Amino acid sequence: MRSIGFAASAAFLAISLACGNQAPPPAAPAGPAVDPATAATITATVKFDGQPPTPEMITLTGDPKCVSENGAPQRPDERIVVGENQALQNVFVYVKDGLGSFAFPIPSEPAVLDQDKCRYSPRVLGVRVGQAIDVVNDDPTMHNVHALPMVNQEFNKSQTVQHSHMLHTFTAPEVMVKFMCNVHQWMASYVGVVAHPYFAVTDESGQFALKNLPPGTYTIEAWHEKFGTQTAKVTIGDKQDQTQAFTFTAAKTDK
Known about the structure:
By secondary structure, the protein is mainly beta. The chain is 9% helix and 42% strand. It has one domain (38-249): Cupredoxins -  blue copper proteins (Immunoglobulin-like), CATH 2.60.40.420. β9 (143-148) and β10 form a beta hairpin.
């Protein structure tokens, strides 16, 4: 009986590792819930100051299937995406400090990171500590999902089958975790892992909203993969709508 139990445990461990879950997700911390009657919102538009650089072109000819999926041998790089009115896309904005002891349920639905046309989509993603990420391979070619955290556990796993899924759960806050593909070196994505629901990624309009915040004073951080980070102190009262602008320039260095 002991050998049977050991074999079953070993099999379960192997399945867990294959799915990318190196540790069980943490339970939601105990603490008070946010009172919706007093909750507030912070909104803003993140902009780029200056002439937007011309996107570099990525060569896809190392994999004929990537060329076929894109319909061309090259595709624009997505590190800097500036839209109308200088709106800066793919900026991760989150509450860095000031929440105190509030507790927030962990979402049961996974966040999704797709591999489509030999690119990660979205380029920037937010996820909760303890919430699974579902990494999907929608391409008819092999990808290698390689996460490079500094705090959480690194993993490096191949996805050889189209439409396959791989689940992974980060167990500690970390902004940001880079994802890459060892097969296709141009592929990159960045995941912000936070312990609360107050985060957003700017869209094509450069906008974000942090909703249902309890009244208080917060440090808000905006992160961009090319231009680094900016922080701001924001104080909001009961039911207040507050705005906070961020502007990045080409003079900012990589971070």
